[in-house]
Amino acid sequence: MKKGQAEVLQLSLLFEIIIAALVAGILIYSALNYSNFSKFNQQYAEEDLKRIVSAVMAAPGDVKIVYPISAQYEVQIKEGVDVKQSPNLLNDPFNKESALVIENINGQITINREALTTTPTEQPDAKQQTPEETAKLETKPTDLSKSADSSPSIFSEIPPISLNINLEAEEPKDFAQQIKCEHTEREGGCELKQSAYERLLFSVDYAKENYGREFHVTSAYRAPELQRKIFVDKNCNRKWVCGPKSATCSVDAIKISAFDSCPHTTGGAVDLCLESEKCSGAKPEMSDYYLKEDAELLEKIMCETGWLRYSAEWWHFEYGTARWKKTKQQDQNRCTLI
């Protein structure tokens, strides 16, 4: 072999070795960093499941949703949706596809992982699937009311919402024995109609168990006469207090019946804050109770338990009122009234 040919052959072999080394390096790096590459899909799956579980939870009847997801991901649902990579990932990084079956049956949310249904041409050879592989896809339904840390789950503990509430036919119930209720004389007593009363008591327990906080109520049900007096005291300003249009702003000039549909007079509205050093006692204005972080947490708690906030007032929430029903019919996931 001539000298020139030998040098060309050596260069060719060297080039092939370099290419092989690069390819091997890429494959090794990919294997070692497989979890990083999969985090994108992990985040997308987590966002999808948050919306799906929220929709299943709010469904008025029984519902079942099948969500395809790689078996390399473990899904936990306690106070939220958490998607993590399975500890078996390194043993089997190309795990078989599976699906989460999310069901709401009679208000009970369950999740079951099962093998993803495939067409006959896609069905894997049964001989190639070991019992260990099958076990990865076959798990018992998860009772979300019994999470690992025994903390209640917002997805299983919240009573279902009914749009057939009729506050007008219900009687007011006093909650002063169960909830701290301090108010100025003009705000009336500590009562709500039955449906709102029961939902508020649940919200109280929910806030204590999940966030370690208590409520401080400043206003609830108001008799139409009281609503009229408050309206007139506020100079009949409809921006701040519910009331009718009136040419003359006086108690004698406005009929009591004009206040029958106001949120507080329906018995389905409550003004409150989270108990704190600032949120205590009876103060003249709700702004005197305001703490930004607490106001945000209050909305979160009330929204999670079925209430809707009036957008102009951080303290005002409604349950079972006409505009509450209208909002829930249009968008189950909203936290503020339309």
CATH class of the domain at 161-222 and 262-330: Alpha Beta
- Overall strand count: 13
Q: Tell me the overall shape.
A: elongated
- What class do helices, strands and sheet pairing give? alpha+beta
Residues in β-strands, percent: 15-25%
Weakly predicted, low-confidence segments: 34-38, 87-96, 117-156
**Biggest pleated sheet:** 5 strands, mixed
Mean pLDDT metric = 75
What name is given to the CATH topology of the domain at 161-222 and 262-330? Muramoyl-pentapeptide Carboxypeptidase, domain 2
Rg (CA only): 30 Å
The SSE order reads HHEEEEEHEHEEEHEHHEHEEH
Number of contiguous helices: 9
Residues in helix, %? 25-40%
Strand order of the largest sheet: 8-10-11-13-12
Beginning-to-end CA distance, first to last residue: 88 Å
CATH-scheme architecture of the domain at 161-222 and 262-330: 2-Layer Sandwich
